[in-house]
Specification:
118 residues
Length: 118
């Protein structure tokens, strides 16, 4: 029954984003990053094969969206992109997650998509 709960959380995040951004829809990668980066870690530290990224935390995800604790941008081939991150004093752990949306494929496409993030 986790799928309906996560779907509801994504709907709430989308609604809040649209309200704050004059009706614009959030990119799927932003929603994914908010869910994964604010989840409560379970089991072994960090993502693992048993618990994934952990349990979604609605309050933390909504707070991160409201405080705009995310950066967006596009990166072209061979381009380097840097973001400055302000970490408040006393923050015990800094979690950074890169998420992206791939362009749509095309029927009969022959090239495989390769994402190589170093």
């Amino acid at each position: 029954m986790s799928a309906p709960a996560v779907t509801g959380l994504v709907a709430l995040l989308t609604e809040q984003y649209k309200r704050e951004q004059s009706g614009a829809s959030p990119e799927p990668a932003l929603l994914k990053a908010l869910l994964l980066n604010t989840a409560k870690d379970l089991g072994n530290p960090g993502p693992d094969y048993t618990h994934g990224y952990g349990m979604p935390d609605a309050k933390a995800a909504m707070g991160a969206l409201g405080a705009r604790r995310f950066a967006r941008g596009a990166v072209a081939q061979e381009e380097v992109k840097e973001f400055e991150i302000e970490v408040p004093a006393g923050t015990p752990v800094l979690r950074v997650l890169a998420a992206w949306d791939d362009h749509e494929g095309w029927p009969g496409g022959w090239r495989a998509l390769v994402n190589d993030l170093d």
